[in-house]
Amino acid sequence: MPKTDPQDVNQQVEAHFTPEMEERGVSRRDFLKFCTAMAASLAMPFSFAPAIAQAVTDPKRPPVIWLHFQDCTACTETLLRSFHPTVEQLVLDTISVDYLETIMAAAGHQAEAAKEASLKENAGNYILVVEGSIPTKDDGIYCKIAGKTALEHLEETVPNAGALIAIGSCASWGGIPSSAPDPTGAKGLSEVYPGETVINLPGCPPNSYNLLQTIVYYLTLNKLPDLTDKSRPKFAYGTLIHENCERRPHFDNGRFAEQFGDSGHMNGWCLYKLGCKGPETYNNCPALGFNDVGANSWPVGTGHPCFGCSEEEIAFTVPMHQQSNVTTPAPPALFPRIVEEQGEGVNAGGAAIVGGIVGAAAGAAAMMAKRLQERDQLEEKMKNAQQQQDKPEE
User: Fold this and answer.
1) Are both 60-237 and 241-378 of the same fold?
2) For the chain, which residues make up each domain, given as ranges?
3) Exposed (0-12), middle (13-18) or buried (19+): which is 190, by Cβ within 10 Å?
4) CA dihedral defined by 372, 373, 375, 376, rounded to 10 degrees?
5) Least enclosed by CB within 10 Å: which of 91, 136, 159, 280?
6) For the segment 213-253, what is each residue's pLDDT rounded down to a tens digit?
7) CA separation for the pair 313, 296 (Å, rounded)
């Protein structure tokens, strides 16, 4: 295959840069970085950046209908805190948000009229985003907007949508409202419409860039991204958090925080023993972070175990500090040294050394995972024995 000339690609991307963008404070450099970074995050080649530039600057912006049901609005709030692009750039330049209660200037009858007009004008082409779970018990009377239940709103919008996106864990599989005793019969969009292809973007809240990347993919290729068996985009939910966690080297070397505030916790050791659900949670939190504030912008980065919020069988079901099941103990091929931050990289000599010990590391990690349980059992026996000795004689 012929090599891609970076200069040619950059020129093709810049050809789509408009004066209006510059007036809104977007520089050519920012636009170029956005398009190339978007291609990388979607696992596309660098040469795909011009196609992304064309899609996001197309004057025919895709209409978006965003419905709120049983939710706390955190999914929308995280969108409002995105920076690349900012929410005003997203709304004014990339997509046409025709209905979203949180940011609409209109209210009441005017807001509903705007939605009805968009549904008629854009039948078959609009993107329907659902936030919050859908109550199904008692004909859905537990959530009403403009005199209609959530189920009735979906009956009007789902059949003619070009794409269906469930944002957040509540819309994906029921989330908090579906937790026992679930008085409203809360369900996710895909459960209410099992025959439709729904893109699930779970999280509590999910990362706003996963939504943006999904929309850009759809606009660029006019098709949905590759999905996992749970209808989640592979580019965002195809890898366990455990595989890319900055604390993973400590896991592989048996260094664990035993309790909050101890020396291991203060020194950034693995949070497995404190209940981290990273070993069984699929998400890109370590790589993407939240709100563009650096490495400490996700739970593990702040010193708290992963909650598993993007997994139906874990979040709001399994106790927060219960230890997770380690199903893939073998480490990836390359890891930074303990003293380095994730992403520092290694030189050629270092890569060769690491490559030579991969087999041994994988075997050691597997044995370590097995010994974790044995160690805990031994500690429990010793604790019980000590308690027996401390009992006063009768």
Assistant:
1) no
2) 12-59, 60-237, 241-378
3) buried
4) 120
5) 159
6) 888 888 888 788 899 999 999 999 999 999 989 999 999 88
7) 26
**From CA 202, how far away is CA 310, in angstroms rounded?**
5
Q: Give the span between the Cα atoms of 238 and 240, in whole angstroms.
A: 7
In a 3-state reduction of DSSP, which class is residue 331?
Answer: coil
- pLDDT the model gives residue 42: 66
pLDDT digit string (tens) for 32-76?
Answer: 877 777 777 666 677 777 877 777 676 567 788 999 999 999 999
Give the 3-state secondary structure of residue 282: strand
Question: Which architecture characterizes domain 60-237 according to CATH?
Answer: 3-Layer(aba) Sandwich (3.40)
Q: Specify the DSSP element, H or E, that contains 36.
A: helix 28-41
- 241-378: CATH homologous superfamily? Cytochrome-c3 hydrogenase, C-terminal domain (4.10.480.10)
DSSP single-letter state for residue 240? B
Q: Please give the structure tokens belonging to residue 201.
A: 């973007």
* Residue 37 to residue 58: CA distance in whole angstroms: 19
Phi-psi region at 343: left, alpha or beta (left = phi > 0; alpha = psi -120 to 50): left
CB atoms within 10 A of CB 378: 11
> Which residue intervals of 122-247 are DSSP H helices?
150-157, 169-173, 189-192, 208-221, 234-237, 241-244
d(CA 111, CA 243): 45
